[in-house]
Amino acid sequence: MFNFHKKEKPLRSLTGFGGGVGRAFGGAGGGGGLVSASGGNLQDGVEPGNGYKYHTFTASGALTVTAGGDVDVLMVAGGGGAGPGYNSGAGGGGVVHHSQFTVSSGPYPVVVGGGGANPNANGADSTFGGMTAKGGGGGVYYGNTSSPGGSGGGAEGTESNPAGQATQPAQNTPFVPQTGFNQYGNPGGAGTTSGAYSAAGGGGGSAAGQAAGPGPGAGGHGGAGQPVTGFEYPIVGLSPLTPQANSPTNNHYGAGGGGWGYSTQYGGLRPEGGGGRGGNGVPSAQSDGLDGLGGGAGNSYYDPGTNVGGDGIVIIRYAV
Fold this sequence. Notes:
Blueprint: H1 21-24, E1 36-38, E2 52-57, E3 61-67, E4 69-76, E5 95-103, E6 106-111, E7 126-128, E8 131-133, E9 181-184, E10 226-227, E11 252-253, H2 284-287, E12 313-319
Antiparallel strand pairs: 1-3, 2-12, 3-6, 4-5, 4-12, 5-9, 6-7, 7-8, 10-11
């Protein structure tokens, strides 16, 4: 699904690479000239006049490199899904940004993670060049333990449950920080007995989800998405974000979803950057995370719709 509209510090100790350090972080074979490549939804790439060419993937495919060098990569995983009923908000998809990733000639598979669906499924991972952005943690039903993910799902408020944590697989150990590499994700909000009859929000790329409650009332707000400079809509070749995405700078990714509660959340706004709304009377379509942003799903108990997480995105740019 894709409709174009729909820091806590970077987690440097959480790596998430399966392809080997040499290739993923500037191994041999890049070359010293300008990069040339093809691929993405707009097959020849987009040159918006800012000195870069963009290859934007809203679905899985491949970047075919004909001349190697350093590229700037943004990966966002799918946001988690949230079930109907007494349910917390889901975590946003993990966000990975590598500004000095070396590619050599040949095809590079691109996997764009889809959003999690009911009931409370985690979002799917996005991958490129041995790097992995982890799917957002799903929401949680009454009395159950929260889900970890790129950003964690929130906890249900009627129990003192821990929040879902932000996780990445430590596939290279020990991890050596690399120039230009950052990844972003935060835990979901905690559940407390004082938050009875409300639920916590899911974590986002730049902020944790809010805790449930206190007491019957508003559920926790989802954590805001992470802004990434140079990857703004419509520079990347997609339509500008609509006001419902609540991203005034057009570049927030991986927001968490809001948890359920008796009252409407924050004047009806989504978390900043595409997470779903939570609260009383929220239409089901507005509880979905937004595609292309990896937004986590929110929840509205009284209008239990699909509550699907937003699909992720992979964008590669290089100087021209």
